[in-house]
């Protein structure tokens, strides 16, 4: 008989984790009110939505929503530009590669993490109270949104760059800021550009919704039309936004190819 | 045992990989195939279990026509043919035992294999195969945590778990150092001698071929240019197979 | 002194110009004046100040905690829907598993689903499933199927085909190849994507409350409308705590999944 090696005990994560996850899921579905019979009944109402949805009223949309659509895009542009460029220096402080001061690193990193935890619409709600209804609040909200995402992405990129050139610059007597500017920044610029385009696209999608809380853009119109179930007016608006998003996606793919 | 009848393989794009191969391999033979890269060694090997389907001719294994076998027959034939690969082809995230058990898949019902409730006999076969390549103690170690030589031994164990009558080895030691290569080759030789499994190995190291082989087959540009005992092979024969004089890269050498 | 290639410089200048012009056009279009910008920090400080001290009365907690929990349930249930359905679909969308015309079509369908933000999906479901957590769950669930489906299919397309060949050569069936060759390779990455999606869905579910699709968003907007700032502050803090906790646990689990367990022999 051969000597069988000892079988390792089953992983705690799998043994305890999976049953917990399954039980928790059941609980969640229950709490959420998931009920197959009710659901089937509800589905019979779908014509309330699908009928107008697939009957888009383009002329109405173009007449009444164009201005708001432009506003939506403007909010996205401004917010992503400001948010991303403010995040640029912050990211360097939030990475241990370029910030050796443990306390300051911790503060900046925590700040970015904190900003990340608050959803964009929550920011919008707060800003509408602080600076009033309208697109300014929306821009501020999406600035926080962009800042948070760029901060996380960029600081993680900076974490993994080659520290060599940085050390070389410092050892030649350059100040800390000079070294970072000349040796660390160029390494991450391509990533920055890619992230910026990505965030810009996210901002366009996000700014569609801002209007729901009065922070400008086309969301306001969508909300009013939705209450009257005018999905025939909403669908062309959504389609127009999607077209813009697709255009930007194509542009960014083209641009990335030229740059990299 | 294995018979090639006018076998030809033309890949889409027009590349002629094998040209009118006629070959007979007897049960229990230990055959080594040498030739340049692109000479057709890999194609020849893969036409035995129909991973590559010949465009002309037929391959017979144990009297059965592999080339024109139905799906069901093919699975049956393949389950009797074990294969090991240059890149080992282990599932890196799975442990050694799971990898070896995949050799038993053709014999085990789907439900049993998914749930991990492998029949005792199959597990026993897996353990015995691991024992034969002396790596049983690593049964629960993850594939990626093993060295190259160890991974190849697991590959051999996996093939052995099939209880095959034929063993195909496609450049099994190309990624290994000289010492480990000899270890792997000696396992293959031992299995051939102790279990009588017909073994066919692709190699491009000529000294290894001479060291371990009994029968040597040389391929050049898809053609069979040498078939004889390893003892009768001369340097001139090698140069004929390779179409050029022997270089140092054709020899694995001793370890540094 | 050598100059940067002309084409590259033109590109850089054009892009910078685009960004600057775009920003100025946007700022003026939105009537954002310097005055507004300068006044903003003060206004924000006033708001934040009004939120403290937080309303931690039992009444507030009784109202807010269940809603926060509801956001958690919605996010989890939605992610489960996303994971369960996206998994088989991702195989159909992978061009190394499914035939090209199937994978292309599936990918396009997934792109279509992904395009709609969760909130818009919630709109669509509201008239059908009514106000409440179920609508939010469905919206998040369906959007997740889209994103997870695409990401998972990319993981599947990136696997090492070698082990599949080994299984095939030993007489295994296509199902064997999938279960023993593909699945072990892709599960760690795909599972970590599920967890990451859960983190994102948690934020989405907090927001969905604004349109009445369940969760804490409705609370926040109500408190703000009624100018009950301390209570609004509590809602915010509760949300932040929940999201931070979930993020940390999820990140730890994800790291462990990718790293795997090491056995010493």
**What fraction of residues of chain B sit in β-strands?**
15-25%
CATH level-1 class of chain A? Mainly Alpha
CATH topology of chain A: MetI-like fold
Give the strand content of chain A: under 5%
**Overall average pLDDT of chain B:** 89
Q: Assign the CATH topology of the largest domain in chain B.
A: Rossmann fold
Distance between the termini of chain A: 62 Å
Low-pLDDT stretches of chain A are none
The major β-sheet of chain B equals: 6 strands, mixed
- State the shape of chain A: globular
Question: Mean pLDDT of chain A, rounded to whole units?
Answer: 86
Protein structure class of chain A: mainly alpha
According to CATH, the homologous superfamily of chain A is MetI-like
Number of helical elements of chain A:
11
Shape of chain B: globular
Task: Indicate the structural class of chain B.
Answer: alpha/beta
Would you identify the regions of chain B where 5 or more consecutive residues have pLDDT less than 50? none
Write the layout of secondary structure elements.
The complex is a heterotrimer of chains A (260), B (256) and C (265).
Chain A: H1 12-32, H2 36-43, H3 47-53, H4 58-93, H5 102-117, H6 120-131, H7 135-159, H8 164-171, H9 176-210, H10 219-227, H11 231-259
Helix pairs in contact in A: 3-11, 4-7, 4-9, 4-11, 5-7, 6-7, 7-9, 8-9, 9-11, 10-11
Chain B: E1 2-10, E2 16-25, E3 30-34, H1 41-48, E4 56-61, E5 64-65, H2 71-79, E6 81-84, H3 96-101, H4 110-115, H5 120-132, H6 148-161, E7 166-170, H7 178-195, E8 198-202, H8 206-212, E9 215-220, E10 223-229, H9 235-242
Parallel strand pairs in B: 3-8, 3-9, 6-7, 7-8
Antiparallel strand pairs in B: 1-2, 1-4, 4-5, 9-10
Helix pairs in contact in B: 5-6, 6-7
Chain C: H1 6-29, H2 34-51, H3 58-92, H4 100-115, H5 118-129, H6 133-157, H7 162-169, H8 174-208, H9 217-225, H10 229-259
């Amino acid at each position: 008989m051969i000597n069988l090696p000892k079988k390792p005990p089953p992983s705690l994560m799998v043994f305890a984790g999976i049953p917990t996850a399954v039980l928790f899921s059941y609980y969640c579905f229950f709490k959420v009110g998931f009920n197959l019979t009710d659901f089937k009944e509800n589905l019979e109402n779908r014509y309330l939505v699908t009928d107008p949805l697939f009957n888009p009223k383009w002329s109405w949309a173009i007449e009444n929503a164009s201005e708001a659509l432009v506003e939506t895009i403007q909010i996205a542009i401004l917010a992503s530009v400001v948010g991303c460029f403010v995040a640029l220096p912050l990211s360097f402080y939030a990475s241990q590669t370029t910030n050796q001061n443990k306390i300051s690193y911790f503060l900046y990193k925590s700040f970015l993490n904190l900003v990340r935890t608050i959803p964009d619409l929550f920011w919008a709600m707060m800003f509408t109270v602080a600076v009033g209804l309208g697109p300014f609040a929306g821009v501020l909200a999406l600035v926080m949104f962009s800042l948070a995402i760029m901060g996380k992405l960029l600081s993680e990129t900076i974490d993994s760059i080659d520290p060599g050139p940085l050390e070389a610059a410092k050892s030649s007597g350059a100040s800390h800021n000079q070294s970072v500017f000349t040796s660390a920044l160029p390494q991450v610029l391509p990533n920055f550009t890619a992230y910026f385009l990505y965030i810009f696209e996210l901002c366009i999608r996000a700014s569609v919704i801002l209007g729901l809380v009065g922070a400008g853009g086309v969301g306001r119109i969508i909300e009013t039309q939705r209450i009257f179930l005018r999905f025939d007016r909403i669908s062309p608006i959504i389609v127009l936004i999607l077209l813009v998003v697709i255009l930007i996606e194509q542009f960014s793919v083209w641009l990335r190819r030229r740059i990299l | 045992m294995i018979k090639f009848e006018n076998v030809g393989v033309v890949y889409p794009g027009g590349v002629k990989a094998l040209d009118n191969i006629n070959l007979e391999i007897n049960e229990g033979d230990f055959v080594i195939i040498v030739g340049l890269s692109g000479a057709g060694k890999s194609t020849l090997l893969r036409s035995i279990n129909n991973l590559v389907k010949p465009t002309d001719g037929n391959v017979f294994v144990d009297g059965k026509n592999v080339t024109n076998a139905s799906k069901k027959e093919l699975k049956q034939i393949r389950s009797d043919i074990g294969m090991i690969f240059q890149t080992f082809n282990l599932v890196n995230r799975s442990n050694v035992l799971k990898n070896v058990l995949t050799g038993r898949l053709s014999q085990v019902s789907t439900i049993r294999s998914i749930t991990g409730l492998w029949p005792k006999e199959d597990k026993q076969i897996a353990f015995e195969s691991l024992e034969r390549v002396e790596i049983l103690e690593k049964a629960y170690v993850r594939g990626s945590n093993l060295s190259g030589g160890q991974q190849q031994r697991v590959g051999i164990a996996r093939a052995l778990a099939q209880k095959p009558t034929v063993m195909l080895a496609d450049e099994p030691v190309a990624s290994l150092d000289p010492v480990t290569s000899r270890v792997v080759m000696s396992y293959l030789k031992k299995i051939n001698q102790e279990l009588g499994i017909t073994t066919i190995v692709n190699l491009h190291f000529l000294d290894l071929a001479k060291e371990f082989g009994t029968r040597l087959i040389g391929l050049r540009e898809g053609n069979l240019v040498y078939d004889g005992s390893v003892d009768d092979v001369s340097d001139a024969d090698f140069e004929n197979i390779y179409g050029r004089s022997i270089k140092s890269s054709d020899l694995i050498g001793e370890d540094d | 002194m050598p100059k940067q290639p002309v084409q590259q410089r033109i590109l850089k200048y054009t892009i910078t110009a685009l960004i600057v012009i775009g920003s100025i056009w946007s700022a003026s279009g939105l009537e954002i004046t310097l005055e507004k910008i300068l006044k903003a920090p003060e206004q924000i400080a006033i708001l934040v100040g009004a939120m403290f001290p937080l309303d931690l009365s039992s009444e507030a907690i009784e109202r807010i905690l269940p809603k926060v929990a509801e956001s958690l349930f919605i996010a989890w249930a939605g992610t489960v829907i996303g994971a369960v359905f996206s998994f088989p679909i991702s195989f159909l969308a992978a061009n190394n598993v499914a035939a090209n015309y199937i994978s292309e079509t599936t990918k396009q369908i997934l792109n279509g689903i992904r395009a709609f933000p969760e909130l818009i999906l919630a709109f669509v479901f509201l008239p059908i499933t009514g106000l409440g957590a179920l609508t939010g769950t469905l919206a998040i669930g369906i959007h997740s199927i889209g994103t997870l489906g695409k990401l998972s299919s990319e993981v599947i397309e990136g696997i090492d085909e070698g082990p599949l060949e080994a299984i095939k050569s030993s007489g295994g069936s296509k199902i064997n190849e999938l279960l023993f060759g593909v699945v072990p390779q892709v599960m760690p990455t795909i599972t970590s994507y599920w967890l990451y999606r859960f983190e994102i869905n948690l934020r989405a579910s907090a927001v969905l409350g604004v349109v009445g699709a369940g969760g804490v968003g409705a609370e926040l907007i109500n408190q703000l409308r009624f100018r009950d700032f301390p209570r609004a502050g509590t809602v915010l803090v509760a949300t932040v705590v929940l999201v931070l906790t979930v993020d940390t646990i999820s990140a730890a689990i994800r790291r462990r999944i990718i790293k795997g367990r090491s056995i010493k022999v």
